[in-house]
Automatic annotation (TrEMBL):
SUPFAM superfamilies: Protein kinase-like (PK-like). This is Putative non-specific serine/threonine protein kinase. Its EC number is 2.7.11.1. InterPro entries: Kinase-like_dom_sf, RBK1/2/STUNTED. It comes from Rosa chinensis (China rose). It comes from the Eukaryota. One of its GO terms (molecular function) is protein serine/threonine kinase activity. Keywords: Kinase, Serine/threonine-protein kinase, Transferase.
């Protein structure tokens, strides 16, 4: 009986740790998407067009920041 409880505890502990790690990655991605919305002035999902992250990735890779930023941020 004791071994069963120890095994159960380990299974629940591993499950909890995996969920925490997953949520942390999700939170980081969400924060980045929010920053991208603020910088570009575009919504994150603009149906029927593609997502903001997919739209911005080529601009970031090409270092084309002028095209990426919203005109509101220009001085």
């Amino acid at each position: 009986m004791i071994h069963h409880n120890v095994f159960n505890f380990r299974v629940h502990l591993v499950s909890l740790l995996l969920n925490i790690l997953y949520m942390e990655k999700f939170d980081v991605y969400s924060f980045g998407a929010l920053l991208l919305e603020l910088i570009t002035g575009r919504p994150s999902l603009n149906y029927p067009q593609q997502s903001l992250v997919i739209w911005a990735r080529p601009l970031l890779n090409a270092n084309d920041l002028k095209e990426l930023f919203d005109t509101y941020w220009y001085w």
